[in-house]
Amino acid sequence: MSTEWEVVIGLEVHVQLNTQSKIFSGAATAYGADPNTQACAIDLGMPGVLPVLNKEAVRKATLFGLSVDAEIAKHSVFARKNYFYPDLPKGYQISQYELPIVGKGHLDIVTDNGIKRIGITRAHLEEDAGKSLHEDFHGMTGIDLNRAGTPLLEIVSEPDMRSAAEAVSYLKTLHNLVTHLGICDGNMQEGSFRCDANVSIRPKGQQEFGTRTETKNVNSFRFVERAINYEIERQISVLEQGGTIDQATLLYDAAKNETRPMRSKEEANDYRYFPDPDLLPLALDDEWIESVRDTLPELPHEKRDRYQQAFGLSEYDASVLVANKALAHYFESALDNTQAPAKLVTNWVMGDLSGALNKASLDISESPVSAEQLAGLLDRIHDDTISSKIAKTVFEAMWNGEGDANAIIAAKGLQQVTDTGAIETIIDDVMAANPTQLEQYRSGKDKLFGFFVGQVMKQTQGKANPQQVNDLLKKKLSS
Amino acid sequence: MSTIDANAVNNIAHLARLAVDNKHIPDLARDLTNILDLVEQMNQIDTQGIEPQAHPLDAKQRLRNDEVTEINQRELFMSIAPETEAGLYLVPKVIDAE
């Protein structure tokens, strides 16, 4: 019998804080500048320079900590992490080790089994490294140090995730949070939000963790899922063939969809951390921390609670809506602009609209149908001008840029027929045209009721009010 | 008590990218062991009730405002680099994956 495996995933996310200047120098952080034009003497590690900490980076890290209910350290320390690589000019990275600015917190994510709370171990401030360009410069490597010294917040999760899908949900929730807080631009292509995944497996029921591997720098949600799933399959196959997992740092190759070893962990791991003598301990007082707390916007989980309480949405619906700031905004604008109840708005935003966006690979911010336009459509469903079924046709026309709901309904003559007299006439015609079915129905074949409904709807091209058709048919057929 | 042997000296030298002449290794091993002995001696001191300090100065970090104050001095910095091209510093090839 084959073993049932449990997957254990912890994530380290590097979030670039969107400050104007670097964490320890007054050089600009703007993305895409000419190489090395934003790398000053401090970033280059020239002798005699002194790093001075950027207040805004501290504020943004604090804001994050407060948003995940973490303790903010009133005393934190910067340390040197020593290793040699050409894109790290000083020979060490200034980071935080024993005393990080943000302590234990948590983040709630949406999973297939409902809401799950993921622990956050810590978050610490550090500086980013430069970039190595491995294209051929006569057999040499080109170094661009513009990125060196860009402030990073490294957010470390507990090993609480049990599938690649949960890991992606955590990342999306975290990405939504940091962009919502306005501390990161969230641009994954430009490396503003980068993820390292620690993955191990163990036989289900076993307490102790298996040996883990760390897959570095996976920069899209899709690749994270693929990289983790590849790594899970690889580990299962190694263990089932009687092998052992080596602790290793891996790189994910998206083109080949495989992970491969980067460097041996023993050497890479001996960073010889020690407190940076150039930087004094960072001291924060209660008054300052509270002044940052006052600037917290409504957080996604608070928004979720509000949607449940004020609009009666389910926890799941509310969680899905708040998982994307733009989607939540869309939902609220649609709701503000319609008389329709919140449940109808939710169903359309999460159903037809999200479905159409997915199919077209569009983000909510790129939706061809605006929130106001959708609100207009929902009004017409709500006041019975059109049925839900016809509404889908109108939605499609709106999606294709044919105008607002009212204009489309008028142009295509889609108004629901609610005139009792008109519906009765059609019912009479249908009964007259189908004497056999009528007789069978009247002699007890109840199932034929559906046939008559179908015929009437067909005659009205689906525009008759279904409830009215039912009521009138029942009356007429039994008379 | 820890003792630094020749292997440890070589490992530390490698991590620090220092070239150490073989004939100096015994002396270095002895010196480093002496340093650890001193640390061991300090460990004997009763430090209960004393706040650990991360810095010899009992002061706190000053913060700067988030303003761009540096100008582009690439040409100046590159004038002392061994090799540059297209605005990049050139270094011996580093390969991450292998």
Q: Please, could you describe this protein's structure?
A:
The complex is a heterodimer of chains A (479) and B (98). With 479 residues, chain A is an alpha+beta fold. Chain A contains 16 helices and 16 strands. Chain A folds into three domains: 5-280, no CATH class; 306-412, no CATH class; 420-478, Arc Repressor Mutant, subunit A (Orthogonal Bundle). The longest helix of chain A is centred in the middle third of the chain and has 20 residues, at 221-240. Chain A is elongated. With 98 residues, chain B is of the alpha+beta class. Chain B has a domain at 6-43. Chain B has helices spanning 6-15, 25-43, 74-78, and strands spanning 63-64, 84-85, 88-92. In chain B, strands 2-3 form a two-stranded antiparallel sheet. Chain B is flat and about 55 Å long. Classes of the chains: A alpha+beta (479), B alpha+beta (98). Chains A and B meet through strand 2, helix 1, strand 8, strand 9 and strand 14 of A and strand 1, helix 3 and strand 3 of B.
Compile the SSE list and pairings:
The complex is a heterodimer of chains A (479) and B (98).
Chain A: E1 5-16, E2 53-54, H1 55-67, E3 75-76, E4 78-82, E5 92-96, E6 105-111, E7 114-127, E8 131-137, E9 140-144, E10 151-157, H2 164-181, E11 193-203, E12 213-218, H3 221-240, E13 248-253, E14 258-263, H4 265-268, E15 274-275, E16 282-283, H5 286-293, H6 300-311, H7 315-322, H8 325-336, H9 342-359, H10 371-382, H11 388-399, H12 405-412, H13 420-433, H14 435-442, H15 448-459, H16 466-478
Parallel strand pairs in A: 12-13
Antiparallel strand pairs in A: 1-10, 1-11, 3-16, 4-5, 4-15, 6-7, 7-10, 8-9, 11-12, 13-14
Chain B: H1 6-15, H2 25-43, E1 63-64, H3 74-78, E2 84-85, E3 88-92
